[in-house]
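Risk register update: the risk of archive-format incompatibility is retired. Evidence:
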Amino acid sequence: MTKRILKYGLVGILGTIVHWGTLIALVEGLRVDPVLGSTAGFILTLILSFYLNLRWTFALPSGEGRMSHRFVKFSVISLIGLLLNSGIMYVAVHWLSWPYLGGQVVALFVVPLSNYLLHARWTFK
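Archived output:
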């Protein structure tokens, strides 16, 4: 269990790099709204994280039917995480007038914890 949590954490760190890299590139480079930039980063991270968690963290077999079923579950939970992430970003940026990275830091602590618990109990059970 501890080894699995560590692997999930490493996948999460990589996902965070992809997510934040996309966010910063879109906001700073293309002047995209921070909520949209964060959403784009989240979607890229979804695809990468599913594959790495399926094959490495939870080390599940590759049955094609099972994989597509798991991807649907992973996507549902990740969409819940996306809504949570986007909500946190919206409140932080548009209501509290925080810098967009401040909002993303808050989301960084809330979303991965809720996602891990849901994935461990449903997606990769």
